[in-house]
Amino acid sequence: MTSVMSLENATFVRPSTFYINGFYNMPHAKYYYIFMCFVYAVTILGNSLIMGTIYLARALHTAKYIAVFNLALSDLCGSTALIPMYADMLLVENQYISYGDCLASMFFIFTFMTMQSFTLLALAFDRVIAICFPLRYHAIVTKTTMIKMLGVMWLFTLSFISVVVVLITRLSFCRSTTVDSYFCDHGPIFRLACNDNSPNRIMAYVYTSVMLGIPLLLIACSYGCIGFALYKISNGGERMKAMKTCTSHLILVTMFYLPITSTYITALTTYIHPNARIINSVLTQTIPPMLNPIIYTLKTEEVLQSIKVLYKQIKMNLYIKSCIVMWISVYCEKKKLRQGST
C-alpha cells in the first residue's frame, strides 16, 4: 500500500512500509535473539548503575563525570532505539516497518550514535587540559563549561539529524522498498529513491566527516598533545600516574571508532558475506554501550570507591529500617499483651 501523488508531471510514491532485509536467511536467528537480549539487559543495568552512582555520589559531581553521565545516557538510549526493534524482528520474523516509524528510528539511532562520538570528544578535552595544563584545569574545565559544551553538542546534533531525516521525505520510492540493512539506515534508504538523491548523498558525506571523522581527528590530536606532555615529565611514577587517568577513555575511543572504521575500510576493499556484514555492524553498535560502564567501573578508582560507599550507605539504611520495624513490632506486641492482661 503506497501513497501516490502527482508532482510536476511526475509520480511521487511514498511507501506505507519498508522491508528490512538485514535478517533474510540469517542462520540461528533465535540464538542471536537470546544473545541480543542479554546484551541489552547488561547495557541497561550497567549504564543505569553508572548514572545512578554519579547522581547520588557527591564526589562525582565534577565536569568529567557530567560527560560520563551523558555518555551512559547516550549509550542507554541508543541501545533502546536499536536493540528492541532488532530483537522483535528476529523473534517475530516481521521485517516490515511503517514509513513514519522508520524515519523516527533513523532519527533516534543516528542522534544517540552521534552523541556518543561527541561525548568521547568532550572527555578527550577534559583529559588534554588535565595533563597539559594541570594548574589551570579547575579554572578551565568547570561544570558550567562542560554543561554548555554538551548542550551545544546536543543542539547541533538534533538540528543536523533533523535535516538528514527531513530530506528523506522529499524522495520518491517507485521501484523498491527493500532496505539492505538491519535498521532504517540512511544510506541504503536514499539509494532506493527514483528521483534526485544528491542532497541526501551530500548530507551522508557531511555526516560521516563532521559527526565521526572530525571528532576522531580531534581526539587523535589531543592524544598527540598528551603524549608530548607525558614525554616532558621526567619522573617515571608521575608519568605512569598521568597515563592511568587516560586508560578508560582510550579504551572507550578504541572500542567505538576502531570497529566502525574497520567496517568501512573492509566494505570498500573486500567482499563480505551479507550476514557477516550485518552481524559485524550490529555488534559494532551494541557491544560498546554494554562494555563502557563495565570499563569505567573496573578501571576508574573514583567510581569503584563511590559504588562501595553507596553500597555501605544503602546497607546501613536498610539495617536501621529493619531495626525500627522490629522495634515497632515488639512494641505493638507488648502493648497487645498488656491490654489482654487487663
Automatic annotation (TrEMBL):
<dbReference type="InterPro" id="IPR017452">
    <property type="entry name" value="GPCR_Rhodpsn_7TM"/>
</dbReference>
<dbReference type="InterPro" id="IPR052921">
    <property type="entry name" value="GPCR1_Superfamily_Member"/>
</dbReference>
<keyword id="KW-0297">G-protein coupled receptor</keyword>
<feature type="domain" description="G-protein coupled receptors family 1 profile">
    <location>
        <begin position="46"/>
        <end position="296"/>
    </location>
</feature>
<keyword id="KW-0807">Transducer</keyword>
<dbReference type="GO" id="GO:0005549">
    <property type="term" value="F:odorant binding"/>
</dbReference>
<keyword id="KW-0552">Olfaction</keyword>
<keyword id="KW-1003">Cell membrane</keyword>
<feature type="transmembrane region" description="Helical">
    <location>
        <begin position="107"/>
        <end position="129"/>
    </location>
</feature>
<feature type="transmembrane region" description="Helical">
    <location>
        <begin position="68"/>
        <end position="87"/>
    </location>
</feature>
<protein>
    <recommendedName>
        <fullName>G-protein coupled receptors family 1 profile domain-containing protein</fullName>
    </recommendedName>
</protein>
<dbReference type="GO" id="GO:0004984">
    <property type="term" value="F:olfactory receptor activity"/>
</dbReference>
<dbReference type="Pfam" id="PF13853">
    <property type="entry name" value="7tm_4"/>
</dbReference>
<dbReference type="InterPro" id="IPR000725">
    <property type="entry name" value="Olfact_rcpt"/>
</dbReference>
<keyword id="KW-0812">Transmembrane</keyword>
<feature type="transmembrane region" description="Helical">
    <location>
        <begin position="250"/>
        <end position="272"/>
    </location>
</feature>
<feature type="transmembrane region" description="Helical">
    <location>
        <begin position="150"/>
        <end position="173"/>
    </location>
</feature>
<keyword id="KW-1015">Disulfide bond</keyword>
<keyword id="KW-0675">Receptor</keyword>
<dbReference type="GO" id="GO:0005886">
    <property type="term" value="C:plasma membrane"/>
</dbReference>
<feature type="transmembrane region" description="Helical">
    <location>
        <begin position="205"/>
        <end position="230"/>
    </location>
</feature>
<feature type="transmembrane region" description="Helical">
    <location>
        <begin position="31"/>
        <end position="56"/>
    </location>
</feature>
<keyword id="KW-0716">Sensory transduction</keyword>
<dbReference type="GO" id="GO:0004930">
    <property type="term" value="F:G protein-coupled receptor activity"/>
</dbReference>
<keyword id="KW-0472">Membrane</keyword>
<keyword id="KW-1133">Transmembrane helix</keyword>
<dbReference type="InterPro" id="IPR000276">
    <property type="entry name" value="GPCR_Rhodpsn"/>
</dbReference>
<keyword id="KW-0325">Glycoprotein</keyword>
